[in-house]
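Input record (one chain):
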Amino acid sequence: MALLHRYQSTMHGNYKKFILIFGPVAAIALILSVIARYYLFDPIATPVSWTDNVVLAICLVAFTLLYRTTLPEKKVTFKEIFLLTVGLSCVAAVLYALYLWFYGTHTDTEFVQRFTESELAKHSPEEPGYDAAVEQIKVMATPKYLAFMGFVYTVVTSFILGFFVALLFKTEKSPLHTKK
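The corresponding structure, as predicted from the sequence alone:
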């Protein structure tokens, strides 16, 4: 624990306000990717796909760069960027999960069926425990569960993406806090 308290970082901007403003924008981008896939080529079959991860990564990079330009000296630490990206993603994940529930319930009622079929395709009828797996998948295949999984996957992905975005775009290293 002492290692964590050795560094004293300065927050240079109002990242909380930025999270509340641009978190919903990131959610809208995720929702638009789902809508575009539904109407253009391939309706989703899982709560989070690679296109959602790419959209989230683009949003995190763009909003981090935008945040950095709003700072007076354009100095930002790893901690500040990491908190910004995770905060943006958590707000986006909540709104995205709400949309996934609405999407599975009202917009695309076959979403749950496609999810069930894609999960069942991963199992072979000859493998032991196939019947239990089928029952478990059928229990899990509800719009509520898929929305929850969309939230969890988005938050977990945001931690990973946020770490790399923070490593790439930090401009200042936190000074070492020494005891006197």
